[in-house]
Amino acid sequence: MVKLLDFIPFRGRKRYGGYELLEQIARGGMSRIWRARAPETGQIFAVKILTPESVEVIDMYRRFFETEEGQVALALDHPNVIKTHEYGRGRKAEYYLVMDYVHGPNLEVLIARGSPRVKQHQFSLVMQIGAGLRYIHQQGLVHRDFCPKNVLFGEDCVAKIIDFGLTIPLSLKERSGVLRAGTASFMAPEQVRGRPVDERTDIYAYGLSCYEILTGRRPLPGARDVGQRMQDQLNLEPLPLRRLAPHLPEEMEQIIEKCIAKEPAMRYKSMDGAMKDMRVAVEIAQSRK
């Protein structure tokens, strides 16, 4: 079962159960992430604390992690998926997650900075994030917010998918009206419309993420307004991949186009098919170097 730990002041620092918060490493509208330490072992973790203001998100976390599917999410164990050790609630109703700590920024930041590490390992990244996403689906889950922002790429060049706050079980894929949420620039059309989602929703986001990794730019750049970015997912098509990266094989462009088809029925049915084709395309690309 989920462990509910207490919020305890500790020598001027906050302490959740056995974890001492050392420094805040990320901050958003709905959460704060701290680098933390287990005093008994000295091991470093990341502790994500949901802000009390994010009532809807807190309720979503609570309802999810206290279900059987939530227990599955806590048990995820794959090299390309962040390991979540505990889910808890503090005395001030601050829900939080304790996860493995990965040193370094997320993939979105690295791409925006033009990191040579991303370009050097772009084919490995495409395969790693696909493997992690396939594993998540095999456990009966849909991520729903897959994008470069939710991928950490540590100094060891291992990609790890993070942030399961919007994850839902595949058993809900036939149910409409599931909360429309996600990162606007990576939301599939059915997600924008508030329709039922399944693995193909994540596959759409995978295709857009691969496009950004391989080209260094957003597939549909420009719009600042969240609402407009969502509308762009319904109405606009990105430039063909090879228009921006002519060195890539045609097969890779075809795979991404299939992943990001507007209609779910036109996409890959599962990550198995997408990864099988992507593996061949990567081999072709690497053979041309």
Structure at a glance:
With 289 residues, this protein is α+β, with helices and mostly antiparallel strands.
Strand order of the largest sheet: 1-2-3-4-5-7-6
Number of discrete helical segments: 11
Helix content range:
25-40%
Query: According to CATH, what is the class of the largest domain?
Result: Mainly Alpha
The major sheet is characterized as:
7 strands, antiparallel
The CATH topology label of the largest domain is Transferase(Phosphotransferase), domain 1
Q: What CATH architecture of the largest domain do you see?
A: Orthogonal Bundle
What topology emerges from the helices and strands here?
Elements: E1 7-10, E2 13-16, E3 19-27, E4 31-37, E5 44-50, H1 55-65, H2 68-74, E6 84-89, E7 95-100, H3 107-112, H4 116-120, H5 122-138, E8 141-142, E9 151-153, E10 159-161, E11 168-169, H6 189-192, H7 199-215, H8 226-235, H9 241-244, H10 250-259, H11 271-287
Antiparallel strand pairs: 1-2, 2-3, 3-4, 4-5, 5-7, 6-7, 8-11, 9-10
Helix pairs in contact: 5-7, 5-11, 7-10, 10-11
